[in-house]
């Protein structure tokens, strides 16, 4: 896709200094700009690059006044960073604005879908599936029977949505996500083997939920595994059966949450955190990366370590952790001295 400086200025309500007809077809950092690229200058640290960049168009603040000759066409706006972000959002909308049903794909006769839907090649839509308006289903997506999908949802290539799942509006499901696989439920037999416990529940994603690539969310044994409104899940995360995650909680990569744990609203959980099952974590909790949570957590706690301690206590203890070899040497010297007396 190509855009002229004039078209971009129109989108951003900006003023042009330079050639309004110059075209751009790619994005770049200002220090790496080449012909045909669009970039921006917001951080004063990068100001020297505007005099050397080969980018065709650069978005700058209205307050910017060149001190030397420049070759790039300027688009002046109130806030260059926000304007560039707005432009990225617009670019993504245009790029992803696919409509229609590609072949080969399979759509059950009992499935229903709204307007402006895109269904990519080799996708499978099962029986009694309900799909809303402006849903984008990229190639090789599997949607099982009785799934409900709201409006303005995007499922990227390779996503798998098992039966009975409910997905709200404005959700994004990235590649390799598996929603609704069986929870890890097995009962021991007398002979030491394990019998599978049927997983008869489902998964519910409320509105504005984002699920990162490679993440797995298990169906409930009974009832539902639930991600509330605004939850943001990073790549490669495991969410077990009957977990509930509160509104606007964000979780970083490689975290694992065991079954039936309840996490509150507006929590921030770092990468590689392990959370045991059947506990309750309050609202606005902060958990540092690589922590292990094995107890109930009150509202507003900040935790670190494995098992996790209060963040301030962990930092105080760490001073002693790193000095343990010196302390051990000191104790050994004292013991020897006492033995010789």
In the residues, how many domains can be counted?
A: 2
Tell me the fraction of residues in β-strands, as a range: 25-35%
| Bulk shape | flat
Which class best fits the helix and strand makeup?
Answer: alpha/beta
Number of helical segments?
A: 4
Any idea what the CATH superfamily of the largest domain is called?
Hexapeptide repeat proteins
Query: What is the third-level CATH name, the topology of the largest domain?
Result: UDP N-Acetylglucosamine Acyltransferase, domain 1
Total number of β-strand segments?
40
Unreliable stretches (pLDDT < 50, length at least 5) are: none
CATH class of the largest domain: Mainly Beta
Most strands sheet:
12 strands, mixed
Q: Mean pLDDT, as a whole number?
A: 94
Question: Would you mind describing this structure in some detail?
Answer:
- The protein is α/β, with parallel strands linked by helices and about 350 residues long.
- The strands form six sheets. Strands 8-11-14-17-20-25-28-31-34-37-39-40 form a twelve-stranded mixed sheet. A ten-stranded parallel sheet has the order 9-12-15-18-21-26-29-32-35-38, with no helix packed on it. It has a nine-stranded parallel sheet with strand order 10-13-16-19-24-27-30-33-36, with no helix packed on it.
